[in-house]
């Protein structure tokens, strides 16, 4: 059918018309619909068979504009094809760590997927100081498997090129390039920030050393096509409960630098840590939960690096450095050193991209819910100023980083008085 934006009234007839959904939504069933989307880009509906409430799904549809900016900011609907492709790939490479796809309609720019009943978007329970015992294992597995198995370390050049060609969407790339690496650091009409940090925002925008580093990391983001990355992997793109973790919303997925995904996840954990200056009034309770969040930062990196290295050792089929390359006396030691340096470079990239994304959240178009809900602007400013200090140091000191404890040390140093 020709494209039209669905609403709560039109979704029931649509889902009952789809053959692939006949088992969930038979033509004679009573369908309930609720719009649940609070994102910046798309329409999202929870769809339920009211005659059999075990049968439900989530329908996500792309609008022809950037929702957070309005119709004056056109945006290609093709992004939903990329999201669907990414979800299908995730289910292949990391089964159970992304929602199952039930149906997709390219003409209508939508995908219908598993309804993650009883799951929470990770941001909100973190503000409530909830703990998730399996998160480190799950997210590190997701990142290690999706990044390694779509990289030159595993794929042949022909295989990788074929997969890469399916994820080329320059318009979405430009949004990230502008909103993460450029516009927040100059005058741009969509920028937004707390007036309490006006002086610090101006200082960032006139700091030549910092802006040179941002230009370097942007160039790396554009040119470093290591693997299929999610492109927006943060605590708002993770739904979970005590037993399962699912990555959602990969509409920005494309071939780019692995450290961008890892950096986004780690910096969002740090931003949540900073938000507790306002959310958790008791200093002792705040200190305990901050330590937990730093344990998550360390655990996510350590487990990602370990699993990534283990996958590499067991799957030497890529053409970048094929197994035969190391067949000489001392080759196994050389291979180990190469892997070690490669993973250290990933950590340094993680620091750079994480730092840039931390900065842009303080002075760009979109903040993070954890911090933006702080009503007292002076308290909010304390968290934001710490984020600016940490983000700047992660970015500027990235080339000297030797381990994850260096990044954690920066966080501790910049939060010791708050």
Describe the protein in words:
The structure is a single chain. Helix content is 50%, strand content 11%. It is of the alpha+beta class and 418 residues long. The protein has two domains: 26-114, Phosphorylase Kinase, domain 1 (2-Layer Sandwich), CATH 3.30.200.20; 120-415, Aminoglycoside 3'-phosphotransferase, Chain: A, domain 2, CATH 3.90.1200.10. A five-stranded antiparallel beta sheet has the order 1-2-3-5-4, covered by helices on one side. A three-stranded antiparallel beta sheet has the order 6-8-9. Strands 7-10 form a two-stranded antiparallel sheet. α9 crosses α11 (331-363) and α9 packs antiparallel against α13. The model has no long low-confidence stretch (mean pLDDT 95).
Jot down its keywords.
single chain; 418 residues; alpha+beta; Phosphorylase Kinase, domain 1; Aminoglycoside 3'-phosphotransferase, Chain: A, domain 2; five-stranded antiparallel sheet; three-stranded antiparallel sheet; 14 helices; 50% helix
Looking at the overall shape, the CATH architecture of the largest domain is: Alpha-Beta Complex
Radius of gyration based on Cα positions = 22 Å
Q: Approximately how much beta-strand content do the residues carry? A: 5-15%
Spatial strand sequence of the major β-sheet: 1-2-3-5-4
Quick one: CATH superfamily of the largest domain?
A: Aminoglycoside phosphotransferase (APH), C-terminal lobe
The number of domains is: 2
How far is the N terminus from the C terminus? Answer: 56 Å
Q: Output the helix-strand order.
A: HEEEHEEEHHHHHHEEEEHHHHHH
Mean pLDDT equals: 95
CATH topology of the largest domain: Aminoglycoside 3'-phosphotransferase, Chain: A, domain 2
How many beta-strand segments? 10
Oligomer: single chain
Q: What is the level 1 CATH name of the largest domain? A: Alpha Beta
Major sheet characteristics: 5 strands, antiparallel
Residues in helices, as a percent range: 40-55%
Structural class: alpha+beta
Indicate the overall shape. Answer: globular
Low-confidence stretches: none
List the total number of helices: 14
